[in-house]
Amino acid sequence: MKTEKVLITVKTYPTLSTKYGELVCTAGVREDGSWVRIYPMPFRRLKDYFQFEKYRWIELPLERNTKDRRPESFRPKDLTAIKTIGHMDTSDKWQERRRFILGQVKCFDSIEELICLAKEKNELSFALFKPKELVDFYWEEDSREWDKKKRAKVIADLKQGQLFEQEEFDEDFKLARKLPYIFRYKFIDSKGKSCDLSIRDWEVGALFWNCLRSSGNEQEALEKVKQKYWDDFALMKDMYFYLGTTQQFHSMGRNPFIIIGTFTPPVDKQLMLDF
Fold it and tell me: Which of 15, 72, 89, 95 is buried most, with the most CB atoms less than 10 Å from its CB?
């Protein structure tokens, strides 16, 4: 059982699995710049002292997840062994994060290249991606409740204590609310290809609920989300995407990638010259 050191860069909005309950796609980067997907990760069920923020260095024992053909997928062997050992902050215009992410992680700019590497060669299912041009940020309505059969199965298993070992979990855990919207980015890659991908990161969902609580109006909440992800991120920041494939569609569909996170350091011309 190998202990890995990982900088956490990705946490998606929770989804439901009939086998594992509520899961958060959790992923990060090793010191050498290679990707690690930690799956399954029942993140919100963990007690506070086992949880961690994005851009925290953590150590935990991992083994290759042989039930997931995606090459970066590893299974956590002992959730109680998670140790937080450092944090990469945003001081000095994100200098530390920028130098590590852009210096160590391979960055792609062609969607077709990524699709080929994922579907035909099965060489990757994660990537840092730089769009050439951002075109739009929008949303579309989605179901407002979790699938009833899946939700019932997860709740029943939780009550019976059948999901993972129990000592590391919060006894007061409640399922996350289902997001009633899917948020999306339209962009153009370096080859001129037009792309339209959903964004499933934790922060976009949390922002929607926070805005809805403060405004009490869904349309106002949606506009505030767009203000952050378009007016702030797309128009004002040096925008990158973390892209990942889902297990279901890794080898299927025209484009198996979704946006699982954003990397948005402030524009700094001097730092950009260093790269």
Answer: 72
